[in-house]
Specification:
about 280 residues, alpha/beta, nine-stranded mixed sheet, two-stranded antiparallel ribbon, 9 helices
Amino acid sequence: MIGLHGLVFAYQTRPNLKELVSVRTSASVPFGGRYRAIDFALSNLQDAGCTDVGVLVQGKYQSLIDHLGNGKAWDMARIRGGLKILPPFTLNEKHNGTFRGKMEALAGIETYLREIRQDYVVIMEGDLVSNLPLKKILDKHIETGADVTCVCGNDSFYVDNGTYFETDADGKVKDILVNIHTPRGRRGLEVYVMSTKLLIKFVEDCIAHDRYSLEHDVLQANKDSLNIRTFVWDGYAAQIRSVKEYYERSMQLLDPEIRDDLFCEERQISAKSAGLSSTFILP
């Protein structure tokens, strides 16, 4: 079944968000008035025609479950497939019951991965605020014959300790730099598209060798043997990792250009209805 299946990581709680994440994960933090951070990822998937989505959680996820419900707000309330909350089926007790990395989290839902109906999967962070054209990204992934397509931001998205991709003129990745303090290349948005079969193969290999990092143990370790390519997104993208950034990103919404990019007519952002009367604000 040619199509896209979404896997959204919503288990991280960034400590620099302090009181904002005392009872919730970063993906459940309110943003832009009526939205939660995860609404952007789910809306991106909805626009791409993706109806099957797994949301990986770990702790402090009651707020997230209350917000997501059955996925109706994103047209993901289905008898078969639809939106699924994936709790931590297995945790490594040697590491205080926390996931060491994305591959360890995926290893805990290996059975779920094997039941995916779609040929392709997209892996996303639940706290990435952006309006990505995922259908266009998938089409480009298939057209180029890439094994993995890594979505990167424009130059304004540079942050410390991220994953950066150096490419040739055709967008093929030559080097992958993880957690560097002097940025080089394009900053990854932690959005990856690949075939479902390849993802399962990666998970099996990581389980067998006790590896847990997607960036280190999969992408960086296989950069020479895989056809890894980038898709550069020139629109707005932000991750909210501290109280200071939360304030700054919220104030950026006062910029009409950023608002038009984030809430464009072609790819609308959906959110859970509050069930309240609508408000009309005069000039």
